[in-house]
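Protocol step 4 of 6: structure prediction from sequence.
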Amino acid sequence: TLLVIAKQPLPGRVKTRLTPPYTPQEAARLAEAALRDTLDAVLAAPARRRVLVLAGDAGPWLPTGFDVVPQCAGGLDERLAAAFGGCTGPTVLIGMDTPQVTPALLAPALGHDAWRDADAWFGPAVDGGFWALGLAEPDPELLRGVPMSTPTTGAAQRDRLTAAGLRVRDLPVLRDVDTADDAALVAADAPDSRFAAALARLTPAGRR
């Protein structure tokens, strides 16, 4: 199973750290582009099931091929835990903050041999968090209580996996889109993405 956890791209609800220099409406357009890129990558990757774990309502940006389930209430750790709790068998979760993701970047965790010598796959993020997490046996307790959205979230989550005796293998380090600087760097890394095209069409409010 491939899970994507995301928010409906509504102004004022997503990518709030892009405001300023971008307006809430511009930030939402960037979020939608990032989500579209992410969903496209997941569609092109090998999986038996693809699930969008969504806060909000689906829109025209959602392609066919996904089951949609609502996010539960609670902190991010609870929402991630619940997403895994609805799955059986090897499951890989990603977010909507890495529009540069490709099937090739996900491939190590999705191949026929992906779980031969691994119980978990971990994708660290530049900011100290993580952009991907794969579990051979989805166990919500591996996520509950992990402090989220801190510079040490990734280390804490990885430590939780190893403390449980899991064999952890790493995916490449990626940058989340949180700030305007992140957006520019990610767009440069993925110049052919919807995200890069959306960013190119925008002029930051502070530079007009």
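Step 5 (inspection) to follow. The chain has six helices and seven strands.
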